[in-house]
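Entry:
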Amino acid sequence: MRLSLIDKIFHAFVSARGEKRKEPRREDELPVEIEILSDETSLGPTRVLYAQIKDISAGGVKILTNIYIPLDTPIKLKITLSKLRETISPVGKIVWGNQIEDSDVYEMGIEFENTQPDILCTLLEYIYSKWD
């Protein structure tokens, strides 16, 4: 298997940090706009939702939202990485979801798909940067 330049950069970051996970995560609370890309959902006319990111990696995000999004729903995110002063718009799908006990809040996992190299580089910079 031949690794792309992006994969090589990612693996170099991981090796340098001694990270055990395939894709390290950065815990952070970021607002996110979620655009539903499918008409085949139980969300009715809802096309744009707002949620809170709890952690982010090069492969996806964990969010908190008050609306359940069905598994495998294709979505486009708009994430503002304020510390980098950049906004990225990766696409992905919902891969897991759980309602938080005794609440109306859902914790959901979104996996990015076919991430563009510029978005991946921005994510890696954000994940590995240090701020006071």
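The chain has a mean pLDDT of 85.
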